[in-house]
Amino acid sequence: MSFAADYKQLVLTLVAYLKQLRNFSEKFHLEKLIQQTDNAIQRMETDSFSIA
């Protein structure tokens, strides 16, 4: 497996974990954490896939 494929898989895994965190944050009404998680997801998806 190439470095680019490994990197892409890692990013996809991290984004999946962040989405789980966001779901838990919604259940507990943690608005600040929801916003921060959304920002992190957006940055990872945008920045990571423009590089890879």
Write a structural description:
- Helix content is 88%, strand content 0%.
- It has helices at residues 3-27, 31-51.
- It has 2 helices and no strands.
- It has one domain.
- By secondary structure, the protein is mainly α.
- The model has no long low-confidence stretch (mean pLDDT 91).
List the helices and strands and how they pair.
Elements: H1 3-27, H2 31-51
Count of DSSP-assigned helices: 2
Please give the largest β-sheet.
Answer: none
Oligomer: single chain
Residue share in helices?
over 70%
Quick summary:
This protein has helices at residues 3-27, 31-51.
Keywords:
52 residues, mainly alpha
